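The records we work with from here on pair a chain with its fold. Taken together, the tokens spell out the fold as the letters spell out the chain. To see the layout at work, look at the sequence and tokens printed below.
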Amino acid sequence: MILFSSPASPFGRKIKLALYATGMQNNVDVRVGDTGDPESEFKKLNPLGKLPTLSANGMPLYDSRVIMEFIDSEAGEKSPLFPASGPKRFSVLTKVALADGAMDAAILMVYEGRFRTAEQRVESFVDYQRGKIERALVALAEQTGSYQNGATPDAAEISLACLLDYLDLRALVEWREFAPSLEAWITDFAAHAAGYQATLAPDMPPAPWRNAR
């Protein structure tokens, strides 16, 4: 299998952490996909030209939620990613959607600065996306207790960790102001979740839970 991602992509990192959580990290060749190159190899697999994209025995899979489901299926009953059924499964799926939606909003904020000149930028649009993130952080903090899953986080926990680290990487929202309890949570996650340090983006700012790199 081949995973096309980028070091800074929070959605690509989700997949890498899911591979570690299921013990499948050595089964995948991770390659950098260049979204700015129209001839990039992964765009032949994914017409949307978005990362991550997974090639599994020639079958293209995207987006990250589909790939997570595929990894969960491949790992079988031992997978920690999603409960098999019932309310617990839908709780995890909903938390994934909430964290992923906040990451989408964060990326839109980045794109507004990256692809528009200062004169073209729409601050009301940026504020709208920031509001989504702030509300999501409050809700996630209310729904999240202490981290207890050791080396094998579920999909919602993986998404939350990727959101918090991406917000720090891009300095978009000071999440500790809206969800101070999540600092203890991510400290525990970083200390125990398999692959946490190995999947961090190269330019991550320092934090106590990242000092073990």
Q: What stands out?
A: The first helix runs from residue 10 to 21. The mean pLDDT is 94. The chain has two domains: 2-78, 86-210. Residues 89 and 97 are 12 Å apart (CA to CA).
